[in-house]
UniProtKB/TrEMBL annotation:
Pfam families: Zeta_toxin (PF06414). The keyword ATP-binding applies. Residues 5-149 form the Zeta toxin domain. Keywords: ATP-binding, Nucleotide-binding. This is Predicted ABC-type ATPase. It comes from Cnuella takakiae. SUPFAM superfamilies: P-loop containing nucleoside triphosphate hydrolases.
Amino acid sequence: MSTFSERPTLFIVAGANGAGKSTRSRSMLPAYMEDIPIFDGDILFNEKKKELQQHFSAKESMQRAASFVSAHFDGLVSKAIQKRRHFAFEGHFTQKEHWQPILAFKNSGYYVHMVYLGLDKVETSLDRVARRVRTGGHYVDDFNVKANYYGNLDMLNLNAPLLHRLDLYDASRSLRHLAVLQPGRVMDALQPAEQPKWVQTELPKIATLINNRQFEEVRQTRGMAL
């Protein structure tokens, strides 16, 4: 992978299980990152676990696979930062420590851009994972599907200001671009009445920014009419 002279970018695709991260991530990359590989820890974990199950118990295979993926990812992150290369990955960010790699990139001068693919309810996530498994896709147990659904949203609501740019999408049916946010600012967004319910209930801080933007637009319009 070649190096770049401009400010390096960290591009992240996050969202609920079954929201289409793996399917859509490549098409969402900025044009200047089109040749960058996208690290997918879920796929690597399942591939490694399957390989290890030929030699170890199911429990030990999972533990060894998780350790392998973590070490491999940490190595990729360190190398990218050292060489100031663009980096892209997808995954879940349900706990504080999951945001540490993001902070490492940001503190190293990277532009941090996240795309978040949301679903209307956890049942949609569970159903899509079940359908994926029936067609040969990778399995995620119900507990983790639920933990990822709510944990991702909780942490995004808290940590969105850490991102230089957040593109928020609803992937419940056809993909809808809901909002573009920068720290403390809404650059573009559908009107509050057009936002899905999960934004209002699960992302209250972001919803407040969107609602305030509409209020400010209405106030300015009325001021101009006076």
